Amino acid sequence: MKFTAAISALCIASAAAFSPAASVGRSTALFNSPFDGPSLQYTGGTDPNNKNYVKLTDALQEADTERRKAKEAAEARERAAEIRREERQKKIDYMNNMPDTEPAGTVDEFMFKEGVQDQLDKLDNDLVGLIPVKQRVKEIAALLVLDKMRRKLGFETSVPSLHMSFTGAPGTGKTTVAVRMGQILAKMGYSRRGHVVLATRDDLVGQYVGHTAPKTKEMIKKAMGGLLLVDEAYYLYNASNDRDYGQESIEILLNVMENNQDDLVVAVAGYKDRMDKFFSYIPGMMSRIGNHIDFPNYSADELVAISEVMARDLEYDIDPAAYGTFKDYISRRMELPYFSNARTVRNAMDRARMNAAIRTFEKYAINGENGGVCTVDDLKSIRAEDFQVLVDDIVNADASKRIFA
Question: Which residue ranges does the record assign to the CbbX AAA lid domain (predicted)?
């Protein structure tokens, strides 16, 4: 009986403990749950003047707008892709149905129409000799002309690698050829302006940290739309100094050559042996240059012909008997140090003109011949004696000073 009474009392106590009233008191006293209470109740209502309601409405509208814009952008991309596919298919059908005999126009028509032949003719007139160089330039011009003819018919084309390397001794016409190439590229539509910007290490490399990049980028900016000719490019790299600033300039040039080849042609120039060594240090430069042109030295006869061209451009007449004397001077000068091909000829022509002026001045101004009145022939004539002065300088100079002849 006592055991039964105890069990009954325990059941009554348990029922009382879990009754609703006891549960509320125990929950408040023991648990104090953070999920109970008014924090889970939305009391904002739908009143437009309620700030919470307005913020929620704006957020929903903004989300809808973003979704709509994203959907419209995706549809626009899909339409553009579809248009490209249709145009591509039309082009394929056109090319498949086009007979192989479809006329594209004559090569001569494109050469003259675009002004390319005119530039090649000027190259022939301005530069004596250099047959391999002229041939290489004509090959590049032929590629550009045929590429444009292919475009006319709708063939797939890509801008060829037009970066160049000019190697050779001083005075062999590297700058002149670069100018002509810039003009040819402009005529063919491969460069916007066709101008040539000449740069050296001093133009590209700074003297202190942070100075090189702005200088290099400024020269690149000037050359954009044309051709940048870096003369004696091997001076940009100093193998004996890992901290030389020239490396930074080279890295910028390499990046531009790779990413801006459709708007800038970079040509590097210098002595062949030094340029070969430079390329061995900078293989990235070598791989980005598709046209390597070597400029040979002029022969004595070609240098004499160059003097004739210079005289013609300056409206001078060289006496036929004077050419032998000038060739004698050139042959002797070629054996001396610091010979510079056409530049040496130009310096010799300047001295010959000065000698002719001195001769004419003494004859008419000092000696008073013909009453001091000289003729047109006197003003235009260069004679053998004017070149003989140069020969005498070489013959009579001391061996240690003959480099100044």
Answer: 324-387
Structure tokens at 77: 């991309």
Tens digits of residue pLDDT in 97-115: 555 555 555 555 555 556 6
pLDDT score of 95: 53
Rounded to whole angstroms, the Cα distance separating 345 from 303 reads: 7
| Beta strand ranges found along 87-213 (DSSP E) | 164-168, 196-199
- Residue 69: domain span: 48-97
Q: Which residue in 106, 88, 195 sits closest to 148, CA to CA? A: 106
> What is the 3-state composition of the chain as percent helix, strand, coil, each rounded to the nearest 5?
65, 5, 30
Q: Is the dihedral of CA 280, 282, 287, 290 positive or negative?
A: negative
Please provide the size of the chain in residues: 405
Tokens of 162: 């037009």
Is residue 240 within 8 A of residue 196, CB to CB? The reply is no
The span from the CA of 305 to the CA of 296, in Å, is 16
Is the same domain home to 306 and 291? no
Specify the amino acid at residue 85: R
Quick one: which of 331, 326, 327 has its CA closest to 383?
A: 326
Total structural domains within the chain:
4
Indicate the pTM of the whole model: 0.63
Same-domain check for residues 59 and 198: no
Lowest mean pLDDT of 118-127, 147-156, 162-171, 311-320, name the range: 147-156
- Same domain, residue pair 283 and 331: no
The reply to whether 102 falls in a domain is: no
Look up tokens 């050359």; give the residue. 223
